[in-house]
Amino acid sequence: MYQVSKYFDKLALLLIFFIISLSTLFIYIIEINKNINQYNVYQKEITILKMYKINIDNNNLKKLVKNYITSKNNIKHINLIIKNNHKLNTKQKLEQIIFLLNKEYLITQQNIKVTISILSILTLILLFTLIKTYISIIKNKSKINFLAYNDVLTNLPNRTAFEKDIEELTLNQNQRFIIAFIDLDRFKIINDTLGHNVGDEMLKIISSKINIIFGQKNKLYRMGGDEFVGIIKDVEDIDNILEKLIAKTTHLIEIDNYSLNSTFSIGIAKYPKDGFDKHSLLKHADNAMYYAKDNGGNQYAYYNKKLFVKIQRQLNLEQELIKGLNKKEFRLFFQPQYSLSDNKIIGVEALVRWNNSLLGNVSPEEFIPVCEDIGIIIELGYFIFESACKEYVRWKDLGIKIDTIAINISSIQLYQKEAFEKFKTIMDKTKIDAKNIELELTERNIMEYKDKELKILDQFKQLGCKISIDDFGTGYSSISYLKYLDIDCIKIDKSFLENVLDNEENAKILKSIIILSKNLDYSVIAEGIETKEEENLLKKYNCDNGQGYYFARPMDSNSFVKFYQNHSS
Description:
Blueprint lengths: L1 H51 L8 H8 L3 H13 L5 H60 L9 H11 L7 E8 L2 H8 L1 H19 L4 E6 L2 E6 L5 H11 L4 E3 L2 E3 L3 E8 L6 H17 L4 E4 L2 H22 L3 E10 L5 E12 L3 E3 L1 H11 L2 H21 L6 E5 L2 H4 L4 H12 L6 E6 H10 L3 H8 L2 E7 L16 E4 L11 H16 L3 E5 L4 H9 L4 E3 L9 H12 L1
Parallel strand pairs: 6-7, 9-11, 11-12, 12-13, 13-14, 14-15, 15-16
Antiparallel strand pairs: 1-3, 1-6, 2-3, 4-5, 8-9, 8-16, 9-10
Helix pairs in contact: 1-4, 2-3, 3-4, 6-7, 7-8, 9-10, 10-11, 12-14
């Protein structure tokens, strides 16, 4: 659109030039008309004076000049001739007057010629400019039309083109077609951390791949950002097209030495089943897309009425999360961690909780992914970190002696340029010792961090902070990666304790993780301990520490102080 605006700016300048040129021509035309009038006057005056030249005397010369000379400038000069030239007779004076008028006559005649020449040149210039502008408009008409209906980055048809095409298609309710709303999963992270140049290049490559899969019969549009919409007329082949799109996301994209992949979340709405107009079709396809994204992404979903209820919940979450952050609705709860050997409390994990006035209590499993999607996880993350540090220092002042407070960190925060400085500022502000902080990252985030060769965790380690892998065993990493990671603690996911007493395979996996971790000099903590039998099994496998409902549920800060004091007495 910038290029279209730039072109019309040039057109406006040409219009201004045309107006100025036209005004100049008008002035010159007036000047020519004035000179022609003066020319006629001089011609008339000379003719009359020549007629009286024979029978004129000195007495009536002034009267003659007064009656027949109309030019004020000439009257002035003529009166000087009559008054000052005493040696000349009347006929000689009349001859000088005629000579003067002849001279003025010739000058006026020359002025007319010059003015007409300038007028002719200006007319030619103006005509040439207008012709050139017209030719330029004709040549650029297709370009302007392209920019109006196409996306500049990807060259795909844009939202305007989509709305135009969909309105034409919905006029015929007898035909069938499908709207596919395509959104790139986690694209915002790539765009924000690696830069818009990498993001733009990725969008161009991905849009080209989607377009190839769509083929000639179907049409792809870029709606803006990382959102694309397809009009698929090949209804019978829809599942094949969608499967190809999902499969394509497994291929890495190489951009500026980065190996990237971005999965798709795709929502499907059918015409006329799911809507009769562009607004309802697009809205329902968008709802289906969000459903696919909420279920992990890298999949497609068809719209149905039940799905709409879930999407409404998602929209409510997004709106209330922003309000909730501003209204300070988030609170921290703390779950004690204890040594399996002596039951001593050795630390706590800080857990964020949200009680919203509209939605009630919302679990972190539901609202944390939404916070990451809409970008408020960074602000929420700093709030959690500072609140946890403040509480730990307050407990210390009350005489509570625990080794660490574990704080969950989103990988999105790690990619922020000034993240370490902000965390360090909070630590200095709250006066917490770095050795008492344990930063928890999920297994997937740790692997992403390793692949991208970020240095922030190394900076935390140099300060004295501990690093732990949360939910270990649920990610996609290779066990061999562990020996390369500078971490302190492995937290075994609670899923490995489910039915562990009755499932021999689960028990073997649990035991193997503990042995491997201890061989690599990592401390091991098991999450989700709910029974005495599970605790005894972990002791048998030499697990270091535990955390779960069997020992203590998450509690607010004051409750933890009482729990610690009662447990230690």
